[in-house]
Design brief:
- By secondary structure, the protein is of the alpha/beta class.
- It folds into three domains: 155 residues, Aspartate Aminotransferase, domain 1 (Alpha-Beta Complex); 85 residues, Histone, subunit A (Orthogonal Bundle); 256 residues, 3-Layer(aba) Sandwich (Aspartate Aminotransferase, domain 2), CATH 3.40.640.10.
- The protein is built from 21 helices and 14 strands.
- The strands form four sheets. A seven-stranded mixed sheet has the order 2-10-9-8-7-3-4, with helices on both faces. It has a three-stranded antiparallel sheet with strand order 11-14-13.
- The radius of gyration is 25 Å and the shape is globular.
- The protein starts with a helix and ends with a helix.
- The mean pLDDT is 94.
- Keywords: Aminotransferase, Lyase, Pyridoxal phosphate, Transferase.
Length: 527
Amino acid sequence: MSNTDLNSLSPFEFSLFLHEEVKKQPGLPLLDAGRGNPNWTSPTPREAFFLLGEFATSELIFSQEENALGSQINSKQARLKLFEAFLSKRDTQGSRYWQHLLKHRDLIKGDFASWFDEACDAITGDNYPSPERVLDVAEGPLKRFMTKALFDENEVDFDVFPVEGGAAGICYAFDTLMNSHLLHKGDKIALFLPTFAPYVELPHLSSYMFEVVPIKAARVKVGDHVEYTYPDSELQKLSDPEIQLAVLVNPSNPNSNALNDENLKTIKEIVTNKRPDLLFISDDVYGTFVPNFKSLFAVIPDNCLCLYSFSKYYGATGWRLGVLAVSKNNVMEKLIEKLPMHCKRKVSARYAPLMINDRLSFIDRLVADSRDITLNHVAGLSTPQQMMITLFSIYGIVQNGAHYQQLIMHLCHKREDRFFEVMELPSLRSEYDTAYYCDLNIINWASEHYNSEFAEYLETEWSTVDFLTELARKEHVILLRTAPFGSDLWSVRISLANLHTHEYGELGERIIHFVDQIYQKFLEQTK
């Protein structure tokens, strides 16, 4: 493929191309630091899930006429005692998870026996999700988890809609904003950069064709540390009354920095004093990697749709588990009421089959749109998936969950420290740093590690695509180019989540070895 063809590929398609190139060159073991999939899992809530499934299956009364047939889960007064006996025969992390929950039933609001009956039914998966938006068994634990892990214990009155991962959530959000006439084709939106590459591509789809206003982060030195922050001049762009929506990933990808307190304060002031009608979508998937994280939703809940995915934190990318959170006092519903009459008629006509007293909450519009209105009665995330969300959420709010978070943070920072030490990079400010990714500008690093003349040579004689292709071929190292994320042309993303800890030192050594060879050629040419 030509450089032009390779440049036109998305970062993820280009990564697949690099994999094929590595296969052609046998040698060193592959170090793929381009993938965002973590190499850890959370076994305790998973084991709790499968124990519940095993028990629930034993509760299905088999037909006397045909052993292959079973009944559905019905209420049973003695079910909890049977479950306790079931757990007593098992001494595992999963059984201790349930025993802890049985001793602390106040973690579940309402009657615990009824909740447990619903949990057995949910994991069996024999009924349509009801209510369609979120199961009762899942709603309480999920909201408590989000309040603790993302919203800084801010008691916002909000609703949740579990969805098929973050990818589905962002699509549903855009669809409903368009269908509700809060966004129109060609509107102006703001995008916090750098960000997840598909979010850069999404506004330019033919169905949207949005005019994008970039809000660019700056890399700044704070003492001996580095952090990424949004200058006031960038955030003030949000004051533009033509901007209808702002989209951000917080903490960011690939910079891995959460919005600092000053940024949150500035955004709140802009919304309060200048743009009370401005909408936000905040993807907080990496929020659980930052100590004392505060989502934008905790600061301006009424203007913000919060999107969270369990994929990275719990090593659950294959489960497709996400959630959309919407304040009950959200601005979206107020803006729909203020729409011009011709738009209001279209919106009313679309949602008419579901409207009672001419009203429908914004989150119920999200649910209905996820199944094109007509299939609203079979909407909702599958009940076993919602049960997995429930068990992940409960784990996240108990003491063991706090220990799990500390382990994950320590692991990521240990990997970051090892890579940064070999590459001689300044450390990031830990209070905002997820250490899930790092964004490395090759030219800036070459200038500091070698000299500015060599950096200029590298920038002139090589392209990012050439550099990454040859790095893959010669060193069997795959990194992700992040210009399509809105980063600098020569920036690459290193995932700190998917290699073994000891491999991050070797990763740095291979990168240096590769650049050393280019440097030697540079020296020969400049003699």
